[in-house]
């Protein structure tokens, strides 16, 4: 089956996103379970749900990212979709969010990039 021009554009956009660091990103937390990538996680897993703008029809499922916020840095895996997250925003598992801040803070900002 031949690729359509839209497929080429999506691949180019996906590759452009891979090289970029996303600053001033909004991070929230959510209760994990079975994610849109088909994987089941527990709260202590360092996993994230990716915003809908960058979702690219599951193209980033399983990809590792590096997240920095509040003077700390760690790595996580993309396992879910966050349709309500803003562009560049992530929903973090509760365990991952607690690495950066108490859950009652609710929202933090930071930066992230694909590994």
From TrEMBL:
Record's keyword terms, sorted: Signal
UniProt entry tagged with the keyword Signal: yes
PANTHER family in the cross-refs: PTHR31836, SRCR DOMAIN-CONTAINING PROTEIN-RELATED (PTHR31836:SF28)
Protein name: RlpA-like protein double-psi beta-barrel domain-containing protein
Upper classification of the organism: Eukaryota, Fungi, Dikarya, Basidiomycota, Agaricomycotina
């Amino acid at each position: 089956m031949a690729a359509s021009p839209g497929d080429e554009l999506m691949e180019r956009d996906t590759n452009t996103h891979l090289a970029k660091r996303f600053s001033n990103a909004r991070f929230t937390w959510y209760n994990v379970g079975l994610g849109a990538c088909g994987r089941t996680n527990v709260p202590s897993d360092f996993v994230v749900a990716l915003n809908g703008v960058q979702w690219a029809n599951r193209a980033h499922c399983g990809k590792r990212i590096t997240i920095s916020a509040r003077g700390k840095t760690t790595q996580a895996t993309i396992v879910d979709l966050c349709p309500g997250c803003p562009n560049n925003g992530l929903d973090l598992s509760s365990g991952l969010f607690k690495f950066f801040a108490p859950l009652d803070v609710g929202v933090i900002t930071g930066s992230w990039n694909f590994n």
